C-alpha cells in the first residue's frame, strides 16, 4: 500500500520506497489472485463461508493492482488510482469484519441465517467504502501528493481527513475482530473441554489438535495490526512533524501495508478445503508422482477435513 512518505527524502529514497511498494504489492496481487482463481475453478469451494473469503481476496487483489500502477504525472489516472486504492483497501478490512461476524453469529449465537445477510454485507462493505472515499475527497483540494503514489495528499487537511476516513475505521475493525474472535475461541474451547471430559482417551488427543486449530483464529486480527501499525505510527508522526521523515519507518510502513493481501490470502484463503481441492486435482494428473513427493498427503487431507468439522461436532454435543 502506498503511503505518505516522500517529504524531504532524496530521489534515491523515493526510488527505494517505490521498489518496496511494487515488490510487496506484486506478492499480494499474486496471493490474492490465486485465491480468486481457486474460487472460480473449484466448485466445491463455493460455499458461503469461502464466498466471503473470495470477496476479501478480490478487494485485496484490486487494492494491490491500483497501488502498483500509481503515477502522479498522469493527472486523471493519478486521481483514479488514489481513490480506487482507498476504496478497495477499506473494503478489504471491512470484509474481515463480515467473516468475524459470521463466525460469531453461527458459533456463539447459534444462528443459521447468515446466508440471508449476504446482501446486507455487500451494502455495508461497498457502501461504507464509497462513503469513506467520497469524504476523503474533501481533503484533496490542494492537489498535492507524495512521491510515486497518488493515495495521499501533502496538505494538513488532507492528512486529517485521510486519517479519519481510513485509519479510524481500520482500528475499529481491528478491535471488533479481536473481541469477536476472543468470544468465539473462548466458547469453542469451553465446549471442547466439556466434550473431552465426557469422552474416552482417544478422543482427547483429537480434541487437543482441534483446539490448536481453533486457536489459529486468534491470529487473524494480528494481520491487520501487523500490516498497519507502522503506517499508523508514520501518519501520526508525519502530522506532528511534517518536515521530518524517518526513512526506516517509511520502508516498514510501505512494505507491511503492501503485504496485507498476501497475509490475508495465506491466513484466510489457504485453508484445508483449498489445499484438499488442489491435492485432489493434482492426483488426477500425477497420482504416482504426487505420492512420491507427498507420501502423507492423504492422511493430512483426512485430518484437515475432520478439523474443519470440529465446531459442528462440538455444537452437536452441547
UniProtKB/TrEMBL annotation:
Q: Could you provide one GO biological process annotation from this protein's UniProt record?
A: adenylate cyclase-activating G protein-coupled receptor signaling pathway
The answer on whether this UniProt entry bears the keyword Translocase reads no
Task: Give TM segment ranges.
Answer: 16-40, 52-70, 82-103, 123-140, 160-184, 217-234, 246-270
The GO cellular component terms are: plasma membrane
What InterPro entries does the entry give?
Answer: GCR1-cAMP_receptor, GPCR_2-like_7TM, GPCR_GCR1_put
Span of domain G-protein coupled receptors family 2 profile: 17-272
- SUPFAM superfamilies in alphabetical order: Family A G protein-coupled receptor-like
- Any one GO molecular-function label of the UniProt entry: G protein-coupled receptor activity
Which PANTHER family does the UniProt entry name for this protein?
G PROTEIN-COUPLED RECEPTOR 157-RELATED, TRANSMEMBRANE PROTEIN 116
Q: What is the name of the protein in this document?
A: G-protein-coupled receptor 1 isoform 2
Q: Which organism is it from?
A: Tripterygium wilfordii (Thunder God vine)
